[in-house]
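Quality-control log, excerpt.
Job 1 of 2 completed; input and output follow.
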Amino acid sequence: MTKTKKLMNAPESIIPEMIEGMLGAHPDILTTFGTTGRVLVAVDGPRDGKVGIVVGGGSGHEPAFAGYVGRGLADASAVGNVFASPAPEPILEATRAADGGAGVIYLYGNYSGDVMNFDMAAEDARREGIEVRSIAVTDDVASAPADRTNERRGIAGDFFVFKIAGAAADRMATLDEVEAVTRRANRLTATMGVALGACSLPQTLKPNFELGDDQMEIGMGVHGEPGIRRATVETADAVTDELMRHILDELKLEKGDEVALLVNGLGSTSPMELYLLHRRAKQILDECGVGIYRSFVGEYVTSLEMAGASISLLKLDAELTELLDHPCATPALRIGAPPVPASVDGQARLQRIAEQQASHLAASTATEHAAAAEGAGELTPTIFAEMIRKVSYVIEDRADWLSELDGVIGDGDHGVTMGIGWRAVRAEIETIGETESIDDICQRIAKAFLNAVGASSGPLYATAFTRAGATTGGRHRLDAAGLVAFLEGAANGVRGRGKAEPGDKTMVDAWVPAVEQAKKALAEGGDLVDCFRAAAAGAERGMKATASIPARRGRSAKLGERSLGHIDPGSASTFLMIDAMRQSFETQTLDPVSRAQRPNRAFAPDAR
């Protein structure tokens, strides 16, 4: 496969360096806040009594999302890794920066990772007394039928929804009013796209999907999610006709209606081509007697260097028209005369918030922890930490395989995401103290993974380790029964957070049989080694079984039957993790002779 080329210094530094570049280019508009380095805040925007607007999502879609931070639009943005949701911690920092005491609105595309991370941040914000409302943008008409709009993706229509929300908040509307008009804008926005060529992640430099030289895909998502049909490339007019047909069917426009029209480039489509699409879209609307109140043509929500475009319409009413015209000043969008600066020192306000948060943290960490119980069993915190270290190396070694699996049925970043998360966990493990329990270590793992990754894997693995650690009751040693409870806690955490069940083609399909087999080994009198081997065998069988299951959850759900024959990458990483833990435990507790002689009654051979 041909490697792509990018202007970058190193894949691991591309996001912080991009943020540094944005801050340097727009010091009059943007500043930063918090300790994560992943939050951009409007210099002139957040203020007391105003509803805060926080947007966010994965990088690679620039100018979305941070490019829409500024006066009259978003107050703050949390920045995720490429094609991965930001983690809860930067979202929470953005929330604190945007909070003016009138509540905060979260706006993001409707993807499982974004939903989980923003939900976790909202839970934390509410514990701090900040009222949060979440609105997931669902404008992609290709991704689900009209009776299942809650399943639709958020793509270029983010632009219109963000603009309306930011304007309403800047005009000092109440939280209920901002929420209501934003939800109406979301309902009245419809988008359809076409892809002509793939994009590539900075970490892999490989196309994240394949299209033939003469092919296009109608309805493809901004991460390479499948569309509604693949065909030979057609004329600009024919493509526009098809995109507009689906959009018009959705919005039910009538003669005399007015719309805002967005023709959006996905990254490497020229303005020349975009204006051809606009030309035909205007002809179609003219024929319908629908007026175009305002047009936007250019790159507003991209997908790295993907070739293709999308068309979005926002059906206007009097209020939406006023809000669309409301002045704003952001790096990516300026409308109207520059707003009068708010009568507040933005930097001083952020400094005050930071000092208040530091004081709160100091008070919350001053409490004493009760001494942990010793417990019984061979699995100690030291052995557990080494097991986790082993997992990190195995995942890193198999990252390309995981990304290849994900490239077939997802967006191709699973190996990259898991590698980032487990490297962060490995670094965290190096700082563990001698007195920490297995539960303490699990809390560290959860936080490190979550803050490093975001995406959907971040909340899922963080919840898994949080729930697993809680089953130990603070004990320093676990026996076979303790291990089985630990694994069951992790599985239940994943199921609860992701709302997935066996048969949905997710990591749950590996977790559930792993727990079932470990329980069976325990019931038969098995010890820790037997239970570990049984869990690994169950996880492997579950992983392999996903190849015969059509996807029902996550981004691959849009593939349906087209996902058959392909292993779910989440189940694959789950198997690798459990098996690496098994390998490490055996290496640490069994001598080579005993290990070789030990009956391998449960463990299945390597999946490679």
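Job 2 of 2 completed; input and output follow.
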Amino acid sequence: MIKYRPEIDGLRAVAVISVIFFHAGFTFFEGGFIGVDVFFVISGFLVTSTILTELEKDQFSIINFYERRARRILPALFFLLAISFPIAWIVFLPKDLESYLKSLSAIPIFSANVFFLKDVEYFSTASELKPLLHTWSLAVEEQYYIFFPLLILFTRTRNKKSKRQILFVILLFLASVSLIYSQNLSSSKVSTNFYLLPSRFWEIAIGSILAFIPTSVYMISTSKKQLLSFVGISLILLSVVMFRRDTPWPSFYTLIPTIGTVFIIMFANTSDTFVGSLLSNKFFVQIGLISYSAYLWHQPIFAFSRYTFSSNYLNTYTMFILSFLSMFLAYSSWKYFELPFRDKIRFPRVLLFRLSLILSLFFIVFGYSLSRVFRYFQGESIVAKQLLSKGFAYAKLISDERIFVRERIHLQDKSPDILIIGSSRIMSIDGILGKESLGLGVSGASIEDDIAIVYMSTRKLNPSKILIGADPWLFNLNCGHERWKSLASEYYEALGEKTQNKNSPKEINSLGYSIINLYETLNFSLKNSPIDDATEFHAKIRRDGYHIYDLIYSSKSQKEIESEFNAQINYGMDQYVFSPKAKMEFIDMLREQSQKREVALILTPYHPQLYEKMKKEKPIFLIIEKEFRDLARENNILIIGSYDPDKVGCAADEFYDGMHPRAQCMKKVMSQTSFSHKK
């Protein structure tokens, strides 16, 4: 074993405090995520130093190595998973519980980084609601430590010195490749670069490489140690306050905190330097000792709190209290789980491995099986029922918007004067038409959706007016929108055809129903409903169908909005092939409805910059708008708005993104009509 160095535990304290305060949202810790990079270097150094010491004594063993890793990592981790599950069960809405359960099954096989790569972008607001997000870094470490011992075993040479030299060269080469790879990926595939081992390898490898360097190499004068150790801690602290969420990471920038860590390990000798003495202080050392548990506990505490309470309650003072709570739970976890399992007499190897295997299999099977049950959870009727008696409901329960609209129509006990039908582009018509309106929009509404929803709603309800969104993809044979098939029966019935809906929800067995019933009984979020239209972490639906988007979506910067233009200009319009059949079906619907009530088409504006891009790159949008106007005139149908925001008077800051206007913009669109005349 290598000699204990208290200043390294002190450095762990700096790292974990930085990470915790970053996730708490404290202003001066915006770069606190670099604490993970500090951990990577420390881990590589300590683990590799131990391995090299054992190699020198011919004592290295793969089984011993993994036993140490299991004693270090698994007890506190399994304790956290066991405690977090019941909290998630009573707090999370179905979609989020399903995601949590999937992550639960990924963690024991150390693939959490792969799961979260597909699930959420690390620096997004959505990541703040993921209680197990931070386990991505454990997965990266353990993937490294699957590779590294095997590299040692396959490096065959009788000469110990030659073996060290070969390993050193291989690590140096792989680390260099990994660093260059991460830099190249940092601006193109941000999440892949952040989460996966190939672009993180070099950070742990830096610590490993440092372990190969004889201590005699950095035996320099005390004054130089003072200077270099001060430079080291300065590089780390500067990184904490200097870097931001939008800093490419990992990249060449990451060399700053990692080199700082190397300098401290090399030169911050406890007795010789001020930095070493400071980090060896009992306060820092104690936090360093519980740093692993502190890292484990802080994210679930923050995530569950943010999920449960309004952002109004989670101010700086509250987040500091939650940070302190993380430390308290960390100390308990360290004392009662980490330390006892390091006792080889109380927990011999065989018992440790058996427990690890049993618990790993339990969480894998348990998480995977339950996630499949919640995949088919039908929350649409719950939301529809809530909106009968309450002003608002959370949208997170809705898995299929079409089924939700069907449920709303089925349960609606009062006929509104105005129906609003179309895609998500008309969901921001905010009280413009009064309390008598009902929005039945669905994301990416196709011609089939419009026909099915008009058919369902006008059979049950008797509105005097209908507004229908005239989206450019409605007559596109290649729009690629398939979600309408949830309403296939209604669509074909509206056309006078009979068909069997093959897209009805899959049935779950009796055990699945029992699990769902237990969940509905214990979960308080299902019973909780919003009281106003304030923007929160969760999207809401108002009784009249108006959508209040979540904090993530509604707070996009103009830069973020512009980054999506290429995708949005092609949404449903990548390859345009006109469908005469779709147009005829649409006209037939309009004619039928206009004989019974007033009908209007809405041309919803696009973002000013996206519209300019359309004029240059896809003038088909302009042609389609003219065709809609001709169609309306020929059929004596009112048409309002325009894809051109200038014609309506909508500014860039009146859009959520390139294709979804805010209520301010839609008010300008709706001001063009009182349903008293036709154009």
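Post-run check on job 2. The first helix runs from residue 6 to 24.
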